[in-house]
Amino acid sequence: MMKRFLVIAILCFSVCVVRAQSVSNAPEKVKWFTDARFGMFIHWGLYSGAEGIWEGERLRNGNNYAEWIRYRNRISQDDYIKLAKRFDWNRIDPEQWVLLAKRAGMKYILITAKHHDGIAIWNSRASSNNLTALSGSDRDVLKELAAACKKHGMKLGFYYSHWLDWEHPDGWDHNQEITGRISDEQYDRYWQTKVLPQLRELLTNYGDIAMIWFDMWVDYKTTVVKKAQLDQVIKLIHTLQPACLINSRLGFPSTYPGIDFETLGDNQLGAVYTDHPWETSGTIANSWGYNALENEYKSTSQLLQSLIGNVSLNGGVTLNIGPRADGSVPYEDVIRLNEIGSWLSKNGESIYGCTGLKLRPDQHDWGRITTKKAGDKQLVYLQVYNWPLDKILRLTGIVSKPEKAELITDNGRTRLNYTQAGPYTHIELPNVSGDHFVSVIALTYSKPVELNEKAVAESTFGGLALTGSNSAAQSHAYKIIQFDGVRPKHTVLDTAGNLTWRIYVSNPGNYNANVSYHNNSKNDLSIQLNADNQNLTGVLKPTGRVVVEPHDSYTEEFVDNKIGTFKFPKAGYYDLTLTVNPSLGQSLSLNRIWLSKE
Ligand code: GLC
After folding, report:
1. Residue 98 needs a FRET pair 20 to 30 A away by CA distance; which of 154, 362, 408, 506 works?
2. Does the CB atom of residue 117 touch ligand 1 within 6 A?
3. Please, what CATH class does the domain formed by 464-597 belong to?
4. CA gap 72, 66 in Å, rounded
5. Separation of 112 CA from ligand 1 center, angstroms?
């Protein structure tokens, strides 16, 4: 591994000498985080001793979060703390977590200092209900972890459950919505005697803390927490460690002063390019804390694609492991992290310090794009999930011509031939892909790239699929219905109007236009297609239904209908317009217009 890394390092020297800098415009304080893109979450606490099973019964409730077992299975505090006996302190070694994170290419570690169960995992002076005291150990796991992080150059952050605390008599649990709430005075007692003192300990005793990651996923106005209490937390952090980052799950929107980055929902990946710093916290299986009864793990490709997809939208991923009570990390997690790490040791330059291009998020059916500036140059990384069968990678949207195109392989970089025409870059690929998981092609541009974000992207089939989502202009905001597992994603044109697409023709000649549609009515529906002063008229017959499963499962039929042929005399941009004029009650459900060379 080391040797391979060296070879790559030498081969990429010409690119690496130009100082790489991130394209994102996040404030200085957050820059390390937006450059890091990938970190480790560790859910480890008293619940790890239960492993998702309590006295012969599996975890109740479908969300299947093993760290919720105390609440879900209605376990009394007296019984719950007996789990402390299951911790094997002779085997627990936090340095191993750090080494694993390093191997995985992660740049920070975030550990659950106190989860919803309220049990601190360090020897907290503010509450004797902590793992060290309960298990009769004299170890401070956080101290050891902080030392190991320092030794291995890893940033360290703490997860702290501020809102929920099932241990403290004045803390909050959801059931109080039914049983009656504790008073504001009681809750403030919990806040002042536990939350603030514990945060103070975390921010005083463990050196530099990169972030405190809070966890309240509802608006504070809808629950017991008060704005003033949250403001106290921000103030405390800013006073003790001004560089420490705070995530949006503190309970404020990401625009609130003091919130440094947004955390999306659990495992919720980005959908659009977002300028402010953000991340997804994600699991490898489903639970965060170790759950012995889970066996559905995400594949390495899936995890890599989540990371790449987020980076292409200016976000990152904090990926979780749930070690067991003896500190060991499940093998299924370890193999995936090792594989991701080996991918990153080869392709990491396409992730760290990278962001995305402001093109349509999912416009290429072969993968995603990441990018960064390097001095005056711009590097664009094509993340190829799907190696095209005809060995041509079709990139749409960058008008500038690259200086060079290279495939990153296990044995260094391979130069690739390419052509540039309008917004299309066509790259000739070798038969063998650059990587088993995701192949990366690095394009180097002599200056910042110029985009055409309106142009419809070519598909891996070579043609253009014109849809409601990739149109450049619409006379009405026609409704888009998402793919529901059976019917394709489609746009409902229920009023007279039109959609226009910006297309580029690199190869002049005849192009067939086929419409895939559903016509819900009993009458024909006539449509017009217009491009380059040529008009094609199509008559779309009523379409029926199609059997999905025998006997009882039917859905709308979408059929293909050839409308005609356009002759595009020369290379260049064209506008293609679809005009509809449905009668009352009639609508055209447009799946796509497939435009391809005759
Ligand atoms: C959720 C869960 C929690 C987990 C967290 C991680 O909010 O309550 O168990 O720690 O998400 O994102």
Report:
1. 408
2. no
3. mainly beta
4. 9
5. 10
Q: How remote is the CA of residue 290 from the centroid of ligand 1, in Å?
A: 13
Please tell me if the CB atom of residue 71 comes closer than 6 angstroms to any atom of ligand 1.
Answer: no
C-alpha dist (Å) from residue 336 to 34, 65, 313, 342, 437: 23, 20, 23, 10, 12
- Tell me the best of 211, 266, 268 to mutate to test the pocket of ligand 1, counting ligand atoms within 8 Å of each CB and taking the most: 266
Q: Which of 47, 61, 215, 216 to mutate to test the pocket of ligand 1 (most atoms within 8 A of CB)?
A: 215
Rounded-to-integer distance, Cα 522 and Cα 579, Å: 20
Which CATH number is 1-21+356-454 given? 2.60.40.1180
Closest CA relative to residue 41, chosen from 247, 309, 345: 247
Nearest-atom number in ligand 1 for the CA of 161 is 10
268 pocket-lining for ligand 1 (C-beta < 6 Å): no
Higher pLDDT, 27 or 75: 75
Provide the β-strand partners of residue 514: 562, 594
Residue 11 has pLDDT above 50, yes or no: no
CA-closest candidate to residue 407, choices 393, 423, 421: 393
Q: Residue 204: which residues within 8 A CB-CB, separation 6 or more?
A: 240
The whole-angstrom separation of Cα 316 and Cα 339 is 18
- CA 359 → CA 388, 471, 538, distances in Å? 21, 13, 31
Cα gap 486→558, rounded to integer Å: 11
pLDDT digits (tens, 9 = 90+) for 475-515: 999 999 999 989 999 999 999 999 999 999 999 999 999 99
Q: How far apart are CA 360 and CA 397, in angstroms?
A: 9
Beta 38-42 vs 108-114: how paired, if at all?
parallel
Burial class (CB in 10 A: 0-12, 13-18, 19+), 4: middle
The SS3 assignment for 447 reads coil
* Domains of the chain by residue range: 1-21+356-454, 24-350, 464-597
75-123 per-position pLDDT tens digit: 999 999 999 999 999 999 999 999 999 999 999 999 999 999 999 999 9
| Ligand 1 centroid – CA 266 distance (Å) | 7
